[in-house]
Design a protein that fits this description.
The complex is a heterodimer of chains A (114) and B (113). Chain A is an all-beta fold and 114 residues long. Helices cover 0% and strands 54% of the residues of chain A. Chain B is mainly beta and 113 residues long. Chain B has no helices and eleven strands. Chain B starts with a strand and ends with a strand. Classes of the chains: A mainly beta (114), B mainly beta (113). The interface between A and B is medium-sized, with 28 and 29 residues.
Amino acid sequence: DQQVKQNSPSLSVQEGRISILNCDYTNSMFDYFLWYKKYPAEGPTFLISISSIKDKNEDGRFTVFLNKSAKHLSLHIVPSQPGDSAVYFCAASILGSSGGKSTFGDGTTLTVKP
Amino acid sequence: DTAVSQTPKYLVTQMGNDKSIKCEQNLGHDTMYWYKQDSKKFLKIMFSYNNKELIINETVPNRFSPKSPDKAHLNLHINSLELGDSAVYFCASSQGPGSQPQHFGDGTRLSIL
């Protein structure tokens, strides 16, 4: 039962253009969503998050959009830079729930070409 | 100064052996986690401890036993290793149970021969 899905295993964009990474979820109880970035041989690092009471959160070049009715979120990176090349994981959780369990998608590998 | 550190980074061993992976966090967090990333790249939670108490125990074989001597440490011991245990194991921590985000270590790549 895969509750969080990232349907694009990979994405390639040109430097300076927009990168859009997508994530779908099935559990309507999820109320907090995060994006993590992972470089090879390193652990995931937190990038940006959004609560279900919002539909947009912005942090510099990174913006996360949440569409609750569609159970869909997306991460926009503008402008994309070669250093953004990494695997991006979407995660969903029920904030404050016992244990703080996060359910992760299987990642999208972003390649930004110079 | 590494916030969440795991040792060893790589572990190659024979089927049937017993091995341990150690994790330490210096963030002052109360909650720690173990995740398994298999060949399909999913990060799946295995265990979570809050202040040395087990609070999440997903469907994991009994061969896996976490131990938390204090809230800054969460070790993972695996008995009778099997081929299917080959994966990358990530330790993580967060301020408290239910709080986000989580801070991850760099992973331990376990390979079973």
